[in-house]
Amino acid sequence: MSSFITEDFLLSTEPARRLYHEHAERMPIFDYHCHLSPREIYEDKRFADLGEAWLAGDHYKWRLMRAGGIPEHFVTGEASYREKFDRFAALMPRLIGNPIYHWSHLELKRFFGMDEALSEKNADEAWARANAVLQGENGTARALIGASNVRALCTTDDPADDLCYHRLLAQDASFDVRVLPTFRPERALDIAAPGFAAYLQKLGAAADVLIRTVDDVKDALARRADYFAAADCRLSDHSFGAPDFTVWDEGAAEEAVRKALAGEVLLDYEVSAYQSLLMDFLGALYCEKGWAMQLHLGAQRNLSSALYRTCGADAGGDAIGDTIPAASLAALLDRLAARDKLPRTILYTLNAADNDKLVAAAGCFQDASVPGKVQFGSAWWFNDHFDGMTAQLKSLASIGVLSRFIGMLTDSRSFLSYPRHEYFRRVLCELVGGWIDRGLAPADYDGIGGMIEDICFGNAWAYMGME
Predict the structure, then answer these.
(1) Residue 2's pLDDT band (boundaries 50, 70, 90)?
(2) Is 154 within 8 Å of 34 (Cβ atoms)?
């Protein structure tokens, strides 16, 4: 069976094909949000085989394997990677319609030169071809990044991390891709989590601060932000479900810290008070440092307690949560903007019902300090498929300014995920090319082509101050 990943995959009109092949295709990648390991990049990790490179830690694929009736032994269990790969390959023909089907075939073609659609019939061939690459000079972590035309990437890092591998990479003249940290104080904000008190000890030790109060938490985070800034950090990252930032009660926030350190159960109101206070402090801190603030909204974590007990977090047990109340988001952004302390902000939603809401809210807080200061971020997680990307782009174009969009990111733990940028670029060109084809936009290939190039790379590069 020949490949369906042709030169014009997803490009149904001549304008779409021109925009992609003459503009989008040649742009480098700035992967400003991913979960790659800086240690694995520094050590130039080599994968034992395609099973490890493709299936280790990939909860996207794990969810599909479980839905396909594959026993956990062959998903996250003790089966060999060859056994896991064979099960996944046999399942592949049944995954049509899921973005994993497209992404996987793009990866097989771009990295390993395999044109045929994967199935149990050609699993042996795919295994051999991929492993020949992975075990050669083009199969290491750095080589895979370089082959994808990546100019820079930002990992995701806890404030207590020592960033030793970022420092080593910055000193390594043999690798010309910039690897920058991202400040993600997730655990310092998740005050209701069972391990919160222990985490504050870890954070305090890293910052040389004894944490007993809200001000101590702020002090520790500020010191660690200075440390990250010295390592060329450019942005932060936060993940919430549907937080209530309308609550402003400093006394309740202080009580929340006291109770958390004592191992007591917190009220929802106290959690909200603490998170509102901390996010206000952090937003102003990011503004002073010139960082961007990423807000990932609408995730509901660890729905299956049985799966969580068996496999832990990030194992495929998360789902789309409730939408964020408009008043909550407005409260956070407005408190910062009213003091001229609102940083560049990127809003992502896991719940597509929030698309128009976030674009509209972003438009209320733009200013002349930077084009597209408040961004509606790329289609995230359960939305980063053809329809979800198209919907995100249409919302942004209809309510905001598409030409200022900072584009795609992998949000991935895999070194094989970079074809997701190609997928996004094809979706973008199909949409905009369709407008030209239907007479909704002029056939201005220089002007619109320049916009496409900016969305693919230039806007994000400038937005993060990389120039």
Answers:
(1) low
(2) yes
Quickly count helices (H) and strands (E) in the chain: 21, 9
CA 307 to CA 303: how far, in whole Å? Answer: 8
Q: pTM (2 decimals)?
A: 0.97
| Burial class of residue 356 in the structure, from the number of CB atoms within 10 Å of its CB (0-12 exposed, 13-18 middle, 19+ buried) | middle
Instruction: Give the pairing of strands 374-376 and 344-349.
Output: parallel
List the structure tokens of 158.
Answer: 């806890």
Q: Within a 10 A sphere around the Cβ of 245, how many other Cβ atoms?
A: 23
| Parallel/antiparallel/unpaired status of strands 299-300 and 319-320 | antiparallel
- Alpha-helix residue ranges (DSSP H) falling in 3-48: 14-19, 38-42
Residue 153, C-beta contacts closer than 8 angstroms, at least 6 positions apart: 30, 31, 32, 34, 36, 145, 177, 178, 179, 180
| Angle subtended at Cα 401 by Cα 399 and Cα 406, rounded to the nearest 5 degrees | 120
Domains in the chain, CATH or no CATH each? 46-134 (1.10.2020.10), 145-463 (3.20.20.140)
Q: How confident is the model at residue 467 (pLDDT cuts 50, 70, 90)?
A: confident
Which single residue is written with the structure tokens 């490179």? Answer: 53
- Looking at residue 3, what is its pLDDT? 76
| Sequence letter at residue 307 | L
Burial of 431 (0-12, 13-18, 19+ CB in 10 A): middle
- What would the pLDDT profile of 412-437 be if each residue is shown by its tens digit? 999 999 999 999 999 999 999 999 99
